[in-house]
Amino acid sequence: MFGVVFPNRSFPIDTSTFTQIDTLHWILDMNHFVGEAYDQIGDLCIFLLNNFTLPPDKALAVYLQSPGSAFSFCGAVTLSRPSAVLSLNWPEPGSAAQMQLTAGDSAPLSAKIGISVEDAAALPSLDVAAERRIERLAMRVGENLFNFMQSFCGVDGSKLVVPMDILDRWFKKFQERAKRDPGFLKSFAL
After folding, report:
1. Pairing of strands 154-156, 13-14
2. How crowded is residue 58: how many other Cβ atoms within 10 Å of its Cβ?
3. Residues 177, 184 contacting (CB under 8 angstroms)
4. Would you say residue 74 has pLDDT above 80?
5. How far is CA 125 from the centre of its chain?
6. What does the pLDDT average to over 147-171?
7. Can you give the three-state secondary structure of the chain, one letter per residue?
8. 26 has pLDDT over 60
9. Where is each Hikeshi-like C-terminal domain found (predicted)?
10. How far apart are CA 85 and CA 62, in angstroms?
11. Contact status, residue 86 vs residue 46, Cβ threshold 8 Å
12. Closest by Cα among 50, 12, 32, 183 to 113
């Protein structure tokens, strides 16, 4: 049906390594796979196997769960996107009391990766990491604009006053720097 690889850490892992909950849900216990260092695993490649046909309106969604936390959406694959390398941004572990309630007295606490067949239209975005990179990029560009504007600001009572052409001046400077220095735009994406 599907397989996963932890780049630089594993060989391909097929569905048989996962615990199948029902026909649409699978869980990989990270204690079984890596032990306590689950948060050191930063990437996962998930792929559909050649002989598996996922309906066109469905997706295989990937979820992450740290010990004591709820599952959080990580990304997905579809027939039109049959493989993906996903960044694993593990959720913060839950509190000790919450973990005790979740695990009971005898069950060991572990991180889990969940795979679920879901309606593709119901998922937020197939690549959460790409959205986070875009969000970081937008924040860095906005910060650059703010710093530029702040250097020309004056104060009038409780208001900041900037020259009327400040956005044009910033944009021209931004474009010129991007043309001169190819690494300039890349520095925003870090």
Report:
1. unpaired
2. 16
3. yes
4. yes
5. 10
6. 84
7. CEEEECCCCCCCEEHHHCEEEECCEEEEEHHHHCHHHHHHCCEEEEEECCCCCCCCCEEEEEEEECCCCCCEEEEEECCCCCEEEEECCCCCCCCHHHHHHHHCCCCCCCCEEEEEEEEHHHCCCCEHHHHHHHHHHHHHHHHHHHHHHHCCCEEECCEEECCCCHHHHHHHHHHHHHHHCHHHHHHHHC
8. yes
9. 135-186
10. 11
11. yes
12. 32
Phi, psi of 151 (to 5 degrees): -70, -15
Side-chain-side CA neighbours of 4 within 13 Å: the count stands at 23
Nearest to 166 by CA among 142, 151, 143, 149: 149
The pLDDT value recorded for residue 114 is 94
Spell out the residues 6+ positions from residue 160 whose beta carbon is closer than 8 angstroms to its own: 153, 154
Distance CA 141, CA 172 (A): 14
Taking only the tens place, the pLDDT of each residue in 166-181 is 888 898 998 888 888 8
**Distance separating alpha carbons of residues 26 and 20, to the nearest angstrom:** 4
Strand-strand pairing, 43-48 and 2-5: antiparallel
- CA–centroid distance for 30 within its chain: 18
Euclidean distance between CA atoms 173 and 42, whole angstroms:
36
End-to-end CA distance of the chain: 35
